[in-house]
Amino acid sequence: MDPNDRARGSGTRPRRSGAGNTIKGPHSALTDYLQEIGASEHFRERRRAGGEAARQRAERQRAEGEAEAEVEAEAETETETETGRQAEDSADAALARDLHLEEERARRGGAESSRMAAESVAVAVESVAVPAGKGKRVAPARKTAKKKKKKQDSDSELDEGLNRGSARKGGRMRECAACGRRFLRRGAGEEGEEGEDVCPQCVRSRDRGAAPKPSAPRPSAPKPSGPSRRPRLKKAAGGLLEADARLTSLQDLCVRAIAQHVDRVDSLGDVSAPSLRRLCRIVSKMRVLDARTLGLFLGAERTAVELFDCTRLDAAALRRIVAEAPRVQALALDFCGRLDGAVLAAFAAGLRDLTRLRLDGAFLVRDAAWAGFFRDAGPRLRAVHVRFAGFGAAAMRALVTHCLALEDLRVSECTDFDDDCLALLAPPLTDAEEERQELERAERVRRIAGSPPITVPPTTAPPWRPLARLQRLDLARPHRAMASQTAQRVVRTLGAQLRLLDLSGFRDVDDAFVAHAVAPHCTALHELALAECNAVSPPAMAALFAAQGAGLLTRLDLGRCYMLTDAVVRAAVRHSGATLRSLTLNSVDDNLTRDGLLALSEARCPALEHLDLSWVRCTSDAVLEALLPACRRLERVVVYGCPDVTRFAPMRPGLQYVGRISDTL
Amino acid sequence: MSSSSSAVEQAVATTVKLASGDGFAFIVDKAVAEQSPTIKNMLDVTRGGAFTEALTNQISFPEIKGKVLEKVCQYLIYKYRYAAEGSTERVPEFKFDLELSLELLMAADYLDC
């Protein structure tokens, strides 16, 4: 059973006992989303590997369980003889007792012991059946026990995974067939009849003979059953699920009205910049940012144009930016898939004040177009953020040559960005240097001799100068493999001036990189992100923090570095605890324990505002209770995939939990 | 006297006062006001650390003008009235002036309604 299915399945769909576990479906947006937040391949691999170990452990425990069950079976047979073995109900009573015993165990001990109990039940039932000799009676009982055992077995394989926590202590959320309320059904209890889900209140009232009371406010219209029945207004963490209200919201109505009459809406002069930005965000969220509404956000006096969703803006509309907002200094276009090289060249020619550019998703722009852009606009640019574009070697070369005032560079998730591009940020290797010196010498000779200077053949590299002003370097998640050597050379060159270094997704950087490049050179770092750098071993990571003494880190991202240990967290906190504002330990689950997390509280991270502990299964309510008093400024705690963080987690004003299992649906 | 004052008290307990930035105040039922999730959270007394708004049943919106807030209240009543309808054919259209639309959009985005 996939964790995705469980997340999807624990909704309003009525489930038959046992059948709900096998729901499989097409790859949905939810699956994609879960992958994005960190439910990754790593966990599936681990579960597959863990399945073997679990099976072996099950074998061992079955041996132990049998020893225990023998004792129990003896106890059972003793009570059997007491009540009269020949009575019709004795086997059923024994089974009922066994089931209660198993239920008790489930409540007390968790899934593992309930598995043991279930096995012991199965063994006990078999051993009871033999002396009672009532094969017919016991067969259905054995079947239920076996079915329970099978269910528990499939659960047991998942015990290594998300199942381990308290939310899965043999309980499932069910919807009551009588009153429609949701309740938690544990193990075998609370069943009116086999297969029907009835909440405890309804069971009690049915037993008493009264009609089951409907819960308070129910809509008067009868709810249609089946697939047309949709969930009511559900607000999930972080607004991830849209409210499925039947009424169009006021925001919808307003945006539609604005979009329709955009020619008449010209009174945007008195709207302040943050409001305008918010308006643009709303309009983009509603997917109505197109050629008609674009005019709202452009104007001769605008210095910043930020469009969050340019999918409906074609090339002509994008050129309007040049025409209608020529003074813009900061241009940010997200989802600008329809932007092509010609438009980019128009930007370079038309926007003379442009200093900051962000283009996310401009996949139609090719290398050569980028090169032309940097040649024209490069010297003015101070910040360039490019994502998901065709940014390759020619573009990089042009950038390095022309954009010498660059302070902020982000090239992430570009398919053509490879190791050679990265190498361009570091001084070229010696043989190329020799070649260049040769050319220079030849050039000098010719000039002295009076003949016209030779043109540099295009195959040689232009003279290399470092990006001396570069302070923020973000090369997250490249699509090609990056060599650790190249990364080392880059960091050695630029490290001393960097305030932000993001090499997430550089899977091949290893201990040498951390020890010889980052530790000695990156002394002024404020933000460090080494997510997914799994080749760096935990001792090396800990040594990095220990070697640098007191640090100034405000943001540290070590997500998906699965192997990191408590020592790393402790070292990191010792290094930068006083200044750390954002810490991400997403999926750092293999070796992290409570002590590692409690290190955050011991060192008192007073400035910590954002903490991401998704998929770190040892996070629990108790750990959070210890953390909260020490981290007084904590505003946002992201806990996807932490089953032990329940709705009883400690709250305080200003604190927001994102991704708690109890928050969804 | 006591009966009328208790009636008043009862009215106070089930209503909220929404105050705009330019001095207007609107008194609506709590159930109506809670159609906006933002207001609902503000009025929620079961949170650890209830807001002042929950204790005094008064919410002020200094950034929202009176005209806009009036329209918002009308929308909240409209939503309360028609949200549980089975079909949308019988629900009348909610009208507002175009001049208000921008500010109404900002207010609606803030109140998430």
Structural class of chain A: alpha/beta
Low-confidence stretches of chain B: none
Estimate nothing, just give the exact number of structural domains of chain B: 1
Strand order of the largest sheet of chain B: 2-1-3
Q: How many strands in all of chain B?
A: 3
- Classify the helix fraction of chain A into a percent range: 40-55%
Domain SKP1 component POZ (chain B): 15-78
Main location (chain B): nucleus
GO cellular component, one term (chain B): nucleus
Protein name (chain B): Elongin-C
Structure in words:
The complex is a heterodimer of chains A (665) and B (113). Chain A is α/β, with parallel strands linked by helices and 665 residues long. Chain A is 43% helix and 9% strand. Chain A contains 21 helices and 15 strands. Chain A has helices at residues 3-9, 29-37, 41-83, 90-109, 111-132, 135-157, 200-208, 250-260, 273-285, 315-324, 341-350, 367-377, 393-402, 419-423, 430-449, 484-494, 511-521, 538-547, 566-576, 594-602, 621-630, and strands at residues 171-175, 182-186, 304-307, 330-333, 356-360, 383-387, 408-412, 472-474, 500-502, 527-529, 555-557, 582-584, 610-612, 636-638, 656-658. Chain A has a 13-stranded parallel β-sheet with strand order 3-4-5-6-7-8-9-10-11-12-13-14-15. In chain A, strands 1-2 form a two-stranded antiparallel sheet. In chain A, β3, α10 and β4 (330-333) form a beta-alpha-beta unit. In chain A, α16 packs parallel to α17 (511-521). The longest helix of chain A is centred in the first third of the chain and has 43 residues, at 41-83. Chain A is globular. Mean pLDDT of chain A is 73; it is low at 1-20, 75-91, 109-168, 188-195 and 210-245. Chain B has 113 residues and is an alpha+beta fold. Chain B has a single domain, classed as 2-Layer Sandwich (Potassium Channel Kv1.1, Chain A), CATH 3.30.710. Chain B is 49% helix and 13% strand. Chain B contains six helices and three strands; from the N terminus they run αββαααβαα. Chain B has a three-stranded mixed β-sheet. In chain B, α5 crosses α6 (101-111). The longest helix of chain B has 17 residues, at 66-82. The termini of chain B are far apart. At the A-B interface, α8 and α9 of A face α5 and α6 of B.
